Amino acid sequence: MMAFITRHKTELQKVLAGLLGLGGIFLLWSILSASYHPLIFPSPRETWQALGDLWEEGSLVPSIAITLHRTLYGYGLALLIGFSLAAFSRIGAFWQALLKPVLAVVQIIPPVVWTILAVIWFGISGGGAPVFLIFIVTLPLAFSQAAAGLEGIDRRLVEMSQVYRCRKSRVLRDIYLPALVPHLAATLGVGFSFAWKAAIFAEFMGSTSGVGFLLSTANSNLDTERVFAWVVVLAVLMLICEYGLLIPLRRRAARWCS
Amino acid sequence: MINPMLEFVQVFREFETERGRLAAVEGISLSAAAGEIVALVGPSGCGKTTLLNLAAGILRPTRGRVVLTPNARLAYAFQEPRLLPWKTVEENISFVQEGLLPAGEAAAARRRILEETGLAEFRRAYPRELSGGMKQRLELARALAVRPRLLLLDEPFRSLDGATRQELHALLQSEHGREGFSALLVTHDPEEAVLLADRVVVLSPRPARILKEVVLATPRKRRLLNRALVSSSLERIEGLLSSAG
Q1: For residue range B172-194, what is the model confidence (pLDDT) as tens digits?
Q2: Are B154 and B76 in contact (CB under 8 A)?
Q3: N or C: which end of chain B has fewer CB within 10 A?
Q4: Is residue A9 domain-resident?
C-alpha cells in the first residue's frame, strides 16, 4: 500500500486537490442554499430528489441520448468538413485566402444569431436546428486546428516519401494523418465541450426534445430544483468525458507522436 | 560513358534569400555509371547536399538537366535521419518498400538488412528508443532495403564511432558487390571517399564547381584491406581541399 502511495504520489495529490475543489463547491452550495429560498437556491438534498424524479419519469437517459446524438452528429460533420476544407486550403494560397475570411465571418457571428436562423430554417420540432448550430459554431475551430496541424507537418518526411515514390494514399495515412492526431486530440477536447454546450443552448432556444428542452421547461415552470439537477448531470457527464475519454486520448496521442 | 545511371548536364542551382539570389551549384557536369560509386568531397556548405537533392528530384535545377535512367529505383540515406516517429524500425523500412518490391522480396531484404546492420533485435523499437548512431544505421538500412539501382548517401556514417563506421563500410561494400548499384556518396572525410568510391569528385567552396576528379584504380576490396594503397590519392585530395579552403 505504502509502495503504491509513494509511486503514485503526484497523481494522488492531483486527485485529492480535485476532490477538495469539488468539496469546496458542494460546501458553498450548501451554505448558500441554507440562506436562500429553494426557488432561488435549492439545497443538495432537494436537487437529489429532483434528480430522482427525473430518473423515475424516465426522461433522464433518453434526453441525454438525444442531445449526445445531436452533438456527435453536428460535431462529427464539423470535423469532417473542417478537416477537408483545411486539406483543400493546402492546394494553394488562393484557396487559403478564399476560405480564411469566410470562416472568420462564420466565427464572428454570435451563436444566438445562428440559433435564430437555425430555428427559422429548420423549425423546432426536429433535431435540425441544434445539429446546425453545433456544426456552424464548431466548424471554424475544426478548420483552424486542422490547418495548424497541416502547417506543422514535417516537410522532410513528405520529401522522403516522394524520393521512395510512396503511394499518395500511404503518405496520407502514414504521414499526414498521424501528424494530425495531436491536433485532432486537442480539437476533440475543446470542440466537444463547445459542441455539447451549443447543443444544449440550441435545444433550450428552439427544440422540443433533449436536455436543453427539459431545462427550458423546468425554467418556464420555475422548477429550480430540476434546473439544478440538470446542472449536476451535465457537470458529471463533462467530467466523465474529460477524465475518462479526452485526457487519456490526448496522452495517448502525445505518446504516439513523440 | 554509355548510358550513365545518373547524369548532371551543366547544372546550376540558385536559391532566393533575403539578401538576393544565392548560387549553390554552378555548371556541374557529372555522371555515375551503372555500378559506380562516386564520392563528392568539398568544404562544409559548398553544395554537396544540394547536388544529392537535385539527383533525388527534391530540387530542380535553375539551369541545366539532371537525367536519371528511366524507372531506376532510387534510395536516399539522408544526413539527418528522416524516420517516421510513430512507426517501428521494421515499419519504417516496410513503409518505403511497399510498391517498390513484391511483398516476399521486401520481407527477405528487410530481414537480411536488419541482421546485417545489427538492428534485428530492435525491429519493434520506435525511433525515439534508438540512439543517434542507431537512427543513422536505420536510415542506411532503409535505403539498402529497397534494393536500389541508384543510392544517394549524405554523410551516412557521420555520427558513428570508428568500429561501427568500419563495420558499415564493409556492409556497403558487400551490398554493392551483391546488388551492383550506383551511388553518389557525400562525405566530409577524404579517407572514407578514397576507401569506398571508384571516383572522387573534389568540389570548390560555394557555389559548388568541380575542381578535380580523382579516379581510384585499385580494387575497392584491396583498398579496404590495405589503406596504404590509397595514401597517394588521399594526399592529392587533401591537398586540393586545403588549397580550396
Answers
A1: 999 999 999 999 999 988 888 98
A2: yes
A3: C
A4: no
